[in-house]
Amino acid sequence: MKLKITGLTAMMILLPMASVFAGENAIDTGDTAWIIVATALVMVMTPSGLALFYGGMSRSKNLLNTFAMTFITYCFVSVIWVCWGYSLSFGKDFNYLIGNLEKLFLNGVSINSISGTIPEYLFVVFQMTFACITVALILGAVVDRMKFSSWIVFTILWVTFIYTPVCHWAWGGGLLDKIGALDFAGGNVVHINAGVAGLVLCLVLGKRHGYGREAMFPSSVTLTALGAGLLWFGWFGFNAGSALAADGVAASAFLVTNTSAAMGGIAWMMGEWIHSKKPTLLGIASGAVAGLVGITPAAGFVTMPASIVIGFVAGFIGFFSVSILKHRMGYDDSLDAFGVHGICGMWGALATGLFASPSVTSGASGLFYGNPKQLEIQAISIVITAAFSGIGTLIVVYVTKLITGGIRVEKDDEIMGLDTAIHGERAFQLD
């Protein structure tokens, strides 16, 4: 029997073939749909999840100030990213240090531009949400005592001169990528970078008035727990979305992210229960976040059993850093940005060098899979990131001081509360 080839039949045959030959130049609608969702999830993490998490832990007289600083961070970084941040991070590499300015103001990026299997515009926005939350995380170290105007200047300088180079090093073909460091979703780029910056900033600012002499109660542990839940929810986009595809790696990252967070909450609760005889909601919520931080660099490289260990260790390390180390060292990291993000981020980077499995991502093997070199590389990447962030942030802080005439609020304003002194508002109208 003869087969009659009609125009419609020919199209049905040739279209799939065209998609195959197009290869990486073809947009995958499944990948695109998933990354749109993932981007929205990560966006929720900053002006909602982190604002609630940090706001609830701040004192009631500074709750709105904490929210305002989180919101304005998202606003400024969003604009900076599309103007020059994206180009510096993902533009053509310059000596493995920084991207060039060929994509300044998204020059050359159009609705037809493709990054992998998704539109480049979508990749721009997805990466923008990472930049936003990284800067906002630093805020946790300095709430209650930094000028709002100084925070804005600091944000502009820090995202430009500190975040974009580290982002380029890890994900834009730069230094960390060159040495073979593994950072799936931001152990170095986000958490170590922000945690170390927070430590430097709080040391320069000095301790809060009355720190160590008077009680500084959280305004609402309920808000903090709600914020932790939103962060946990958004983190699925953060980690699983970093696969940049709707595939098995994304699904595995989703699974290990949830498992590590759960184990982090359990571990922190256990440490607190043993140490102070009381398991607090604040501790459980903080432990879940510690577990999320720990799994972030490893999410696309490790198996589920490894995520149990990573989360459990992150919970204990986080509890130790916040409850014991900080007090023994005497620094005033208001909401423990360094203890949770800096230290747990370092653990996560090292854990990637231990547990990375080629069964999850081909070519990624850690110490326990016959590649001890990877652990050494991960340790080197931590030192590079921490040193650059620490020194660079110190420079940014002093430049901010020169521009704004000081970065700390007046003593009377600090005692009164920044909600009233700076914003002329109150978080709760109880009278």
Overall description:
The protein is mainly α and 431 residues long. The protein has a single domain, classed as Orthogonal Bundle (Ammonium transporter fold). It is built from 15 helices and four strands. The chain has helices at 7-22, 29-57, 63-90, 120-138, 148-171, 175-179, 187-205, 221-240, 248-276, 281-295, 304-329, 337-355, 372-404, 411-416, 418-423; strands at residues 93-94, 98-99, 114-115, 118-119. Strands 1-2 form a two-stranded antiparallel sheet. A two-stranded antiparallel ribbon has the order 3-4. Strand 1 (93-94) and strand 2 form a beta hairpin. Helix 7 runs antiparallel to helix 12, helix 10 (281-295) packs across helix 12 and helix 11 (304-329) packs antiparallel against helix 12. The protein is globular and about 60 Å long. The termini are far apart.
Explain the layout of strands and helices.
Elements: H1 7-22, H2 29-57, H3 63-90, E1 93-94, E2 98-99, E3 114-115, E4 118-119, H4 120-138, H5 148-171, H6 175-179, H7 187-205, H8 221-240, H9 248-276, H10 281-295, H11 304-329, H12 337-355, H13 372-404, H14 411-416, H15 418-423
Antiparallel strand pairs: 1-2, 3-4
Q: What distinguishing features does this structure have?
A:
two-stranded antiparallel ribbon, 431 residues, mainly alpha, two-stranded antiparallel sheet, Ammonium transporter fold, disordered N terminus, globular
